[in-house]
Amino acid sequence: FLQECTPENLELKKKVFQNLEATLSSSEVILASSTSCIMPSKFTESLQLRQRCIVAHPINPPYYVPLVEVIPAPWTDASVIEQTIKLMKDIGQSPVLLKKETNGFIVNRLQYALIAEAWRLVEEGICSPEDVDTTMTEGLGLRYSLIGPFETMHLNADGM
């Protein structure tokens, strides 16, 4: 398992993956990227070993936040997905699998929605930036560190 951790630059990732593929002594190595936003098909499409490539995006800071987003390209081999998820679990991480590529993955899409609403609340004069931050650090963030939004909806709504 080889994890690439270069800056979020598509051309750089393409070059790194091409160089890794050219120097690998084994076609059994899984090539993973830490990208937080570039879909794996964008930098693995031209590779001969593209079926061995996957994104395993750890959330910062990974020593406190165990979540890892696992994103296969359309051509990623099922065994690569399984091995990546197993490895992440074995090292104490909490992998989540995206069933298909999407811009922003899961974390960024949720984060962008939250930030957009936070800006609206402040711009409309409803609350201050400090109150938004306090709401997250002393309320919603704490809740969501214990139970997710679907669990919350289940607790708050009959029949769900």
Question: How is this structure best described in words?
Answer:
The protein is α/β, with parallel strands linked by helices and 160 residues long. The chain folds into two domains: 2-97, 3-Layer(aba) Sandwich (Rossmann fold), CATH 3.40.50; 106-156, N-(1-d-carboxylethyl)-l-norvaline Dehydrogenase, domain 2, CATH 1.10.1040. The chain contains six helices and five strands, in the order βαβαββαβααα. A five-stranded mixed beta sheet has the order 1-2-3-4-5, with helices on both faces. The longest helix has 18 residues, at 129-146. It is elongated and about 60 Å long. It starts with a strand and ends with a helix. The mean pLDDT is 95.
Provide keyphrases for this structure:
single chain, 6 helices, N-(1-d-carboxylethyl)-l-norvaline Dehydrogenase, domain 2, 5-stranded mixed β-sheet, Rossmann fold, 3-OHacyl-CoA_DH_CS, alpha/beta, 160 residues, 2 domains
Task: Kindly report the spatial arrangement of strands forming the biggest sheet.
Answer: 1-2-3-4-5
Report the uncertain regions: none
Strand content: 5-15%
Structural class, judged by helices and strands? Answer: alpha/beta
The whole-number mean of residue pLDDT values reads 95
**Gross geometry:** elongated
Q: What do we call the CATH topology of the largest domain?
A: Rossmann fold
**Fourth-level CATH superfamily of the largest domain:** NAD(P)-binding Rossmann-like Domain
CATH class of the largest domain: Alpha Beta
